[in-house]
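hey so u asked for the seq, here:
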Amino acid sequence: MKKIDFPQGTLEMLTLRVLFSGANHGFGIAQQIHVLSKEVLTVEEGSLYPALHRMQERGWIKSEWGRTENNRRAKYYQLTTIGRKRLGTEQESWETLATAISDVLGSRP
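ran it, structure tokens below
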């Protein structure tokens, strides 16, 4: 399957959406995005962890150490109130953009 690059800011929006369902560790976030996208999107560690760090610096998420299902130590991330608001804003902007692009692509030349 062809690798698809994430448009700027999309990875953050998708990560916030996954965390809206509850706290998760990095591998779990990447896995959820892959599954929810019907295996179209693959999140690389080299992209995910810097994005998580940026979102934490912005106050959109917070983290704490915990144990995975396999009893491994992992950092779990969860949405903050600011992050929930940001997700709403991002989703609204994305839906507007996606509709506009769809309109242009669907128009007859």
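The chain has a mean pLDDT of 93. The chain has one domain: 10-100.
lmk if thats what u needed
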